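Recap from last week: sequence in, structure out.
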Amino acid sequence: MSFAFFMLEAAVCDLIMVYRLWVIWSHAFAIIIVPAVTFVVALVFAFVYICNVARSLPSSNGLFSPPYLYWFLTSLACSVATNIYCTAFISYRVWRTQESVKHSRFTGSSTGRVSSGHLLGILVESAGIYTATMLSLLITYTVRSPVSFLITDLVSSGYARWKAFEQHVDSNTRLPQSQALPLL
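Predicted structure tokens:
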């Protein structure tokens, strides 16, 4: 059942990635055609996977048995494709924006070198870490490794911990009402 929750969580994350791409690219619908199609395909295959697993318990091979394996792998492959596409285009847009700001603010020669901190910022901002995790899950599930179960548990519990951390930070960093800035 943890895979069903993971598939639901992956669908929500993919939808957020497509939405982020759409927003970062100034609401251009043309840029989200490919990830929207792969998202819908992933959603359909995930639904079929969950229905098949819920209807009949897996055979002696467990969730790695061929009927379940193919539905899940197809859904996961489409999810990874959605994430790679979105991550690539978000990273490109962030990089181009940072480059144009850098060149407009500072005149002078640029070495053309990109620092590792700059690359890490682009990677984190574009959700590249999530994409790498989904890709590792696809690989481990394809080779039928039990590590795939660990990855799904880590991703699900990691997301829950991150949300708890965000709420904690938000509640501890709010300004007292007297120091809050007025809304314009």
